[in-house]
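Milestone M4 deliverable, item 7.
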Amino acid sequence: MIGAEQRHCQLRFEPAFHHPYTVWIAQQNKVLLELESDGGVDTLSAPLDGRSAAQLSRACLAALTTPAPWCENRGYDGVWYHAAQGQFTAKFWSPRNGTLAAAYVELGSALRDYVAIHDSLRYGQWLRLQGAKNDLLALLR
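Output delivered:
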């Protein structure tokens, strides 16, 4: 079990009508995805270079430590999101486009898809991940 202090860019998705899942970057420079089901938990992983892992971690931490409104109790997709890195957390539901919360969700979605895709197609998802990081950082400027 990986402790919370070792999870970077963690995002838990809790859809109203599907099983929850969680994605994060581990200190061992890999992305982990836990998929919950009635039968238990499946864990998928994918390697991530150290530089990208560090940049993503810094971007997520900057977002979570920014005094911005995170909690949105109005939603349209029925998904709760729980973001965390170390002691910093945020909780929100169906964030509006253009918000910090929406950019964090996009980064989490890019991480999820990076893990879930076949190795031969991972580079395209890596580019999407870098774009999501850049979009998050742009909102912090």
